[in-house]
């Protein structure tokens, strides 16, 4: 049985005080209100991960994720943070290949494959992002493009390693734009990706792979999106910055 997950990507938002307040609000709400089987992954800016660890109880419903890691374990890479460093402060997940990193930091599938390796070697679970641009959705083979992202970023892994990967389908045209993929569009892509995974690793691995949807998912549309059979939760940006909105999204996944 695959896991339902709702991850909150705070991106580059919140001061230390604000982050602390949001974190404790979300954790208390999860404790009081979430009864079903859904894992909540909070991904604050890296600066706050170490202090966040003390609020987030390991083994509970809430886990911690980083928004990125470097592909090398250590070295002369000023300003960067490695997967072993994240692991050493108790981080559980790491988002890899978010479209903003692909776009603004020119991350390639080849580099992302190395980041995935580094994360897995350190015992972190990668949340591997994929998704097509609006132009590709309207004019090109967008399904093939997203499948290629998965092939190039992940298919070098053994099936044992792949079992620790979460996939997030995030159409770029829906991220931060208020334009959500319809539940049908999300389901169609998630189904295609699951078939693609089955082709590489077999049906049982594919059925166990958690595939999240991301792109303007919010308190209003989450229930409809998560009702689709191949949508196993969400990677949530804007709506993760308000505790009540985020909780509504989390509860829609249980
Ligand atoms: C994201 O950044 O992963 C995301 C899905 O953002 P938003 O929910 O704001 O579209």
UniProtKB/TrEMBL annotation:
One of its GO terms (molecular function) is triose-phosphate isomerase activity. Substrate binds at residues 9-11, 176, 216, 237-238. It comes from the Bacteria. PROSITE patterns: TIM_1, TIM_2. The keyword Isomerase applies. SUPFAM superfamilies: Triosephosphate isomerase (TIM) (SSF51351). The keyword Cell membrane does not apply. Its EC number is 5.3.1.1. Pathway: Carbohydrate degradation; glycolysis; D-glyceraldehyde 3-phosphate from glycerone phosphate: step 1/1; Carbohydrate biosynthesis; gluconeogenesis. It holds the Pfam family TIM. HAMAP family: TIM_B. Involved in the gluconeogenesis. Catalyzes stereospecifically the conversion of dihydroxyacetone phosphate (DHAP) to D-glyceraldehyde-3-phosphate (G3P). Belongs to the triosephosphate isomerase family. This is Triosephosphate isomerase. It comes from Spirosoma flavum.
């Amino acid at each position: 049985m695959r896991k339902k997950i709702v991850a909150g990507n705070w991106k580059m938002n919140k001061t230390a005080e604000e982050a602390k307040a949001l974190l404790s609000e979300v954790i208390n709400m999860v404790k009081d209100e979430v009864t079903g089987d859904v894992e909540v992954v909070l991904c604050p800016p890296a600066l706050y991960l170490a202090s966040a660890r003390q609020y987030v109880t390991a083994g509970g419903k809430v886990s911690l994720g980083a928004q990125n890691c470097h592909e090398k374990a250590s070295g002369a890479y000023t300003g960067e943070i490695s997967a072993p460093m994240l692991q050493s402060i108790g981080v559980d997940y790491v988002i890899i290949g978010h479209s903003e990193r692909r776009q603004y930091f020119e991350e390639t599938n080849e580099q992302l494959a190395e980041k995935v390796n580094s994360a897995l070697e350190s015992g972190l679970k990668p949340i591997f992002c994929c998704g097509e641009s609006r132009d590709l959705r309207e004019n090109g083979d967008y399904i093939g493009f997203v499948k290629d992202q998965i092939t190039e970023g992940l298919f070098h892994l053994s099936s044992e390693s792949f079992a620790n990967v979460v996939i997030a389908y995030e159409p770029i045209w829906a991220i931060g734009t208020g334009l959500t993929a319809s539940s049908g569009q999300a389901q169609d892509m998630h189904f295609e990706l699951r078939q693609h995974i089955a082709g590489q690793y077999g049906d049982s691995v594919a059925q166990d792979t958690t595939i999240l949807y991301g792109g303007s998912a919010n308190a209003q549309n989450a229930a409809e999106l998560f009702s689709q059979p191949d949508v196993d939760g969400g990677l949530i940006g804007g709506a993760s910055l308000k505790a009540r909105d985020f909780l509504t999204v989390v509860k829609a996944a249980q």
